[in-house]
Design brief:
This protein is α/β, with parallel strands linked by helices and 362 residues long. Helix content is 49%, strand content 19%. Strand 1 and strand 2 form a beta hairpin. Helix 9 packs across helix 12 and helix 10 packs antiparallel against helix 11. Bound molecules: nicotinamide-adenine-dinucleotide (NAD) and zinc ion.
């Protein structure tokens, strides 16, 4: 078992990583939010696989459990989805002290987290992430929210969980493509903060893909520690938390111009990290050997290293749109050396186009 403590000025919480933790979910929730009742909100696909065990664990710890399911998929990360959760909470008359548990990937954690942040102005939230991405990224740090037609993640809040309970054994049912996407975010953490983690992923890739419990605990622990450290430095993203966007300026443009569902977020992040490291090398202030090393690792993981991309103008427009919606100017998070990044603005368009060319397949 590994525990990472997230120490924030207003609250501190533990991220517990343990094979079999799902069966101790009730004890974990009771430790931070002792109450007679709780709500278990799960991704419907995850509920079919793991919901009964989670509910049994909560009941054996003495909770009366109100259950509801969320339709899987980014398309359901909406205010309508949140409204359904409010209905379940109100229907069961859950109170200010009743904990809400999110069981699923990042879509579930973000949606349930937003409901928890706003129901009765905030109730205790326990994150129980079931994708690698959610374990190492979205469940830690307190960003919760939903999409609206105008853009992704535009409605939301900062609402830190009371605890994060991670059982790496639930990854046994995760589709391999989703596991690869989670690994992209792990590689991101390594590049921005931790050269030794990059070497660990390269060395242990076989064991990771075979889901060896001890290696998964170590992988998740190291990644959560990085995410937690960044969040502790900058809880509300006024500074270094932006480093977590390494690869994401390019990735968002790739996602926006690709057909729906054609490319997953983690796949776009892999390509985006490659483009960003090419860009840094071209600008002359990034490690020259990083693009090749990244390309080799992404290839070994099974993530794409090239994609059919639209022309430069369409990509420029997508990046400009992302910037317009989010506010500010186009900012690139670029590697300076392995384990260290810097934010660059007003990058020469020619250099950006050359970076796109490095990952373009057609
Ligand atoms: N809050 C944050 O800080 C933050 C950070 C990064 C990403 N995000 C958000 O996270 C979301 C992406 O999360 P995701 O990649 O986990 O996607 P997801 O929640 O859609 O899950 C991916 C798929 O895996 C399935 N699934 C989940 N766990 C499973 C399991 N154990 N076994 C079998 N199937 C399982 C789900 O049903 C779904 O189809 C995006 O909405 C993104 O905006 C948030
Ligand atoms: Zn991401």
């Amino acid at each position: 078992v590994a525990v990472v403590r997230v120490d924030l000025p207003e609250r501190a919480y533990d991220v517990v990583i343990e094979p079999g933790a799902l069966d101790r979910l009730g004890e974990h929730v009771r430790a931070v939010a002792p109450h007679a009742r709780c709500a278990l909100f799960a991704d419907a696909a995850v509920a079919r696989l793991w919901g009964a065990r989670a509910a049994a664990a909560l009941e054996s710890a003495g909770f009366a459990v109100t259950r509801a399911e969320l339709e899987p998929g980014e398309a359901h990360k909406t205010l309508a989805g949140v409204q359904r959760l409010y209905d379940a909470l109100l229907g069961a008359r859950l109170e200010r002290r009743s904990p809400v548990i999110a069981l699923g990937g990042g879509v579930t954690g973000d949606t349930v987290g937003f409901a928890a942040a706003t129901y009765l102005r905030g109730v205790p939230l326990v994150q129980c992430p079931t994708t690698l991405l959610a374990m190492v990224d979205s469940s830690v740090g307190g960003k919760v929210g939903v999409n609206v037609p105008q853009g992704k993640n535009l409605i939301g809040a900062f609402w830190q969980p009371a605890r994060v309970v991670i059982d790496p054994l639930v990854l046994r049912t995760l589709p391999a493509r989703e596991l690869r996407c989670g690994l992209a975010e792990c590689i991101k953490h390594a590049v921005i903060r931790d050269p030794e983690l990059l070497a660990f992923i390269e060395r242990e890739l076989g064991a990771i893909r075979a889901l060896e419990p001890a290696v998964l605990v170590e992988l998740v622990r190291r990644n959560v520690a990085i995410k937690a450290a960044v969040v502790m430095q900058d809880e509300t993203e006024t500074g270094v938390r932006a480093h977590l966007n390494f690869g994401h300026t390019f990735a968002h443009a790739i996602e926006a111009t690709a057909g729906y569902g054609e490319i997953l977020h983690g796949e776009a992040v892999g390509l985006g990290m490659l483009a960003a490291s090419e860009l840094a090398a071209k600008l002359g202030d990034g490690p020259t050997d990083l693009p090749a090393r990244l390309r080799a690792l992404l290839g070994a993981v099974g993530l794409p290293t090239r994609a059919a991309l639209p022309d430069g103008a369409a990509l420029d427009a997508a990046m400009a749109h992302d910037k317009k919606v989010a506010g500010g100017s186009i900012r690139f998070v670029l590697p300076r050396r392995l384990g260290e990044v810097q934010v660059r603005e007003r990058v020469a368009p020619d250099a950006v186009h050359a970076a796109w060319a490095a990952i373009r397949s057609s």
